[in-house]
Write a structure and sequence with these properties.
Layout: E1 2-5, H1 11-17, E2 32-35, H2 45-54, E3 67-71, H3 83-101, E4 105-109, E5 111-112, H4 116-129, H5 139-153, H6 156-164, E6 174-175
Parallel strand pairs: 3-4, 5-6
Antiparallel strand pairs: 1-2
Length: about 180
């Protein structure tokens, strides 16, 4: 555990005392802060992300600034993030944060895709595990099971994106089968 005084976090003091492992004696330093020797993300990241969410730091409201928008190519509701998703979302996050720093009205819209064939396969497997054959259900009964499955498991990827710290405008989250997404 490294120790440093709060008052020594000025640039001229910080580097001078950062690696000292004992109490620093300085006339300007009054409080002691322990800095762990290894970074523990669980101690930091969720607190900052919660703060950002509470203060709507990622929210985008139309205004006079030049707009900059990224729409996440919607991942399927059937699975979890893989390394390809993480790489893609990291690049998008860097781009959207850069746009914010440049003063653009940056909006990153999250969403998920229904992936009907993949979802059907997952629901059919789930029904089989309960001893139910798809062929014994009406279309409406099957859709009830499909929506129940989607409601239970469909948000996993979005929760993972939040855990990664993605700076999406979460109030704009879309699902391809939402009523307002229909071309009717």
């Amino acid at each position: 555990m490294f120790r440093i005084h709060y008052n020594c976090l000025k640039p001229e003091c910080f580097f001078r005392f950062f690696y000292i492992r004992q109490r620093v004696k300085s006339k300007n330093c009054t409080e002691i802060m322990d800095i762990p020797s290894k970074y523990d993300p669980s101690q930091v990241e969720s607190q900052w992300y919660d703060y950002w969410m509470q203060h709507h730091m990622f929210r985008s409201v139309p205004d006079e600034r030049e707009p900059y928008t990224i729409l996440i190519p919607p991942p399927n509701v059937t699975g979890v993030l893989h390394m390809g998703h993480m790489l893609n979302n990291t690049i998008q996050d860097v781009l959207i944060r850069r746009a914010r720093l440049k003063g653009l009205n940056a909006c990153w819209v999250p969403g998920t895709d229904h992936a009907s064939i993949a979802t059907e396969a997952k629901v059919v497997a789930h029904l089989k595990s309960q001893g139910i054959e798809k062929s014994t259900l009406s279309r409406e009964e099957f859709l009830k099971h499909a929506w129940a499955w989607t409601d239970e498991y469909g948000g996993v990827i979005l929760k993972q994106l939040k855990k990664l710290g993605c700076s999406c405008d979460w109030e704009r989250t879309k699902f391809t089968l939402d009523d307002d997404m229909s071309a009717r």
